[in-house]
Design brief:
Layout (H helix, E strand, L loop, with lengths): L2 H11 L5 E4 L6 H11 L5 E4 L6 H13 L4 E4 L3 H10 L1 H4 L1 H17 L4 E3 L16 E4 L2 E4 L7 H10 L50 H17 L1
Parallel strand pairs: 1-2, 1-4, 2-3, 4-6
Antiparallel strand pairs: 5-6
Helix pairs in contact: 1-2, 6-8
Length: about 230
C-alpha cells in the first residue's frame, strides 16, 4: 500500500485533533507534508524549534506552511534549560544531553495530549530505525510511520517528480539537516554528528521521549559540577 493510501485509511480511524504529527522540515519532510495537505489539512504540524536551527530551515517551514495551507505549531525548549546548553556549549561537550533538553523534553511536553504520534522516519535512515514498523507502540502510545519502508531515493524521486520545493540546503550538499552545530554536508545522514558515534537525536530511539526528568537531573548535575570547578 502506498503512503497516501495508508494515510487515508489512518484518518478513517483517527481524528486529526488527537494526532500529534511532528516534522523537522528537513530534506525529506516535504513529501509527507504534501500528502497531509492532500488528505487532511485539519492536521496540525508540530515543529520542534531548538533555537539552534538553520535560518534556511525556518524560512522553508514558513514557505511550506503557506504554500500547502498547513497550520504549524512551533514548540520550543524550556528557556532556562536551553540557556544552560548555550552557555555551557553542551552541543560540543555532551550532544546527547543537548538533544535531550532541546528536542526530547520539548516533545515530552506535548506528547501526552495526543492518542497517536505520526512521524516521517524511514528504515534506511539509521541502524536504530531499520526495524521500525509502520505501526508501533511507543510509551504506551501508538506511533504511525507511513514512510517506514520507503527509501531516501524513493522519497527524493517523489519530491522531484511532483515538483515539490526542496529544502534550500539540499542543493548545497546537505543530505540531512538538523541543528547548525551538529550538521555538515554529506550524503543522507552522514553529515549529522559527523565524526561521532552518535546517529540519533533521541526522539526516535527506543528510549526517546519521556526522559524529561532524567535530562533535567543530568543538567542540574552538570551545572553543579561546573560551578564547583
Amino acid at each position: 500500500m502506498l503512503a497516501e493510501e495508508r494515510i487515508r485509511e489512518f484518518y478513517r480511524m483517527f481524528d486529526a485533533e488527537k494526532v500529534l504529527l511532528t516534522s523537522s522540515f528537513g530534506t525529506n519532510s516535504v513529501y509527507l507534508l504534501h500528502l497531509i495537505s492532500k488528505v487532511n489539512r485539519r492536521q496540525k504540524i508540530h515543529f520542534i524549534n531548538t533555537n539552534y536551527l538553520f535560518e534556511e530551515t525556518i524560512k522553508y517551514k514558513n514557505d511550506i506552511a503557506r504554500d500547502f495551507t498547513l497550520e504549524v505549531i512551533e514548540a520550543r525548549p524550556d528557556p532556562t534549560s536551553h540557556a544552560i546548553t548555550r552557555e555551557e556549549k553542551t552541543y560540543k561537550s555532551n550532544p546527547d544531553l543537548c538533544c535531550g533538553v532541546n528536542k526530547v523534553a520539548t516533545l515530552d511536553a506535548v506528547l501526552d495530549d495526543y492518542n497517536v504520534w505520526m512521524a516521517g522516519v524511514m528504515n534506511t535512515q539509521t541502524d536504530v530505525r531499520k526495524d521500525f514498523d509502520i505501526f508501533q507502540i511507543v510509551h504506551n502510545k501508538l506511533k504511525f510511520m507511513p514512510l517506514a519502508d520507503y527509501s531516501e531515493l524513493e522519497v527524493q524521486f517523489y519530491i522531484k517528480s511532483l515538483y515539490l520545493p526542496p529544502h534550500p540546503l539540499k542543493a548545497q550538499g546537505y543530505g540531512s539537516v538538523g541543528c547548525t552545530h551538529c550538521t555538515s554536508c554529506g550524503y543522507d545522514r552522514e553529515g549529522r554528528w559527523a565524526g561521532q558515534s552518535k546517529t540519533e537525536c533521541g526522539l526516535h530511539t527506543v528510549g526517546g521521549g519521556k526522559q524529561t526528568a532524567k535530562n533535567e537531573q543530568q543538567m542540574k548535575s552538570e551545572k553543579v559540577d561546573l560551578v564547583a570547578l
